[in-house]
């Protein structure tokens, strides 16, 4: 149905789910029943049949053995890549989802020299399309970099496309619209690219970190103008997305992050001051600080005095027990990273931790971490 919401549970979605469960259950035997349907309808002028054929193919990719699926995937890839440019949104969306499944489950079936260029080109073009398609194109790109990526390698097949993909993702995240979670998907893809990129992508990852930091600073500057509760939630979500990208950038840059660490910590401290009511933002800010401590080790000691009050508050925030739990982990990071330099803070840490162990108000889930 052309008006159906993609999250609406209807007969065709139920059928696709049923088919995927059948494929997982019976494995190879499903192929001979489904492929004739796919071949019969994948070029059908009626988009309902075209979309059904692609959905059926995507639904059986998890279950049968890869040696059975491999020739079929190799044959189908050029058609699927072409269908991401179909005239009908529903067909494009399902084609992008199916490509995402291929990249997730059967990356070894993709002949990189033959298919990668056209595949990446189609997915990046899809980022400029309808918000529904953006999310699936992002998911497919995430799967490709997760399957091929290796931070210890010098290069990987996506290296030549890396900067172009980041540029396209930055462009679509400039708008304030997060329809169908498309903006969130794009930031998640940046974070994944940043955490999987090999050595030759590090300069681009460094530039990405600066651009994301600029955006985070802008959200802090504009926070005072946010009035409605919906806008506040949207701002918090955006800040969490930006922090996640920065955390992965920091992990990949390692010691090189020291070039921007002053600015990073200044921004984090401002954010913790302005967003004290948003526990999720504080959690993500603390995860970024943890990545910074791991990267900088003893060099982090110059920030600890400014950061310690926020850490003490979070450790005593029993209501937001996940934030409290992350804070307990940060004490471990601080002691490991700073060694002897952490000693002046240890009395305060121990006092709070012992108090937390005694407290009936704190979730039991946090206490093993304290021990």
TrEMBL record:
Gene designation: kap95
Name by which UniProt lists this protein: Karyopherin Kap95
Superkingdom to which the source organism belongs: Eukaryota
């Amino acid at each position: 149905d052309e008006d159906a919401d993609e999250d609406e549970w209807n007969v065709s979605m139920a059928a696709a789910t049923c088919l995927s469960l059948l494929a997982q259950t019976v494995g190879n035997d499903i192929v001979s029943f489904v492929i004739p349907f796919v071949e019969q309808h994948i070029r059908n002028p009626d988009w309902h049949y075209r979309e059904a054929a692609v959905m059926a193919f995507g639904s059986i990719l998890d279950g049968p053995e890869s040696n059975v699926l491999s020739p079929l995937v190799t044959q189908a890839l050029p058609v699927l890549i072409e269908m991401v440019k179909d005239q009908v949104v529903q067909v494009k969306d399902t084609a992008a989802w199916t490509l995402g499944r291929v990249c997730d489950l059967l990356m070894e079936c993709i002949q990189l020299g033959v298919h990668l260029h056209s595949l990446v080109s189609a997915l990046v073009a899809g980022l400029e399309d309808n918000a529904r398609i953006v999310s699936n194109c992002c998911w497919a790109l995430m799967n490709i970099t997760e399957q091929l990526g290796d931070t210890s390698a010098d290069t990987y097949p996506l290296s030549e496309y890396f900067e172009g993909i980041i540029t396209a993702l930055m462009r679509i995240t400039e708008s304030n619209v997060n329809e169908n979670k498309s903006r969130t998907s794009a930031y998640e893809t940046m974070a994944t690219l940043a955490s999987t990129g090999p050595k030759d992508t590090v300069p681009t990852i460094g530039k990405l970190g600066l651009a994301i930091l600029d955006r985070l600073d802008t959200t802090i500057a504009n926070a005072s103008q946010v009035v409605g509760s919906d806008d506040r939630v949207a701002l918090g979500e955006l800040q969490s997305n930006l922090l996640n990208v920065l955390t992965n950038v920091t992990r990949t840059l390692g010691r090189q992050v020291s070039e921007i660490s002053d600015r990073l910590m200044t921004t984090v401290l401002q954010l913790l001051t302005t967003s004290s009511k948003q526990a999720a933002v504080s959690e993500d800010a603390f995860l970024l600080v943890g990545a910074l401590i791991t990267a900088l080790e003893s060099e982090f000691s110059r920030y600890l005095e400014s950061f310690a009050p926020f850490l003490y508050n979070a450790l005593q925030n029993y209501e937001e027990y996940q934030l409290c739990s992350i804070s307990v982990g940060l004490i471990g990071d601080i002691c490991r990273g700073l060694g002897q330099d952490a000693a002046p803070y240890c009395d305060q840490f121990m006092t709070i931790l012992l108090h937390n162990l005694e407290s009936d108000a704190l979730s039991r889930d946090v206490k093993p971490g304290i021990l």
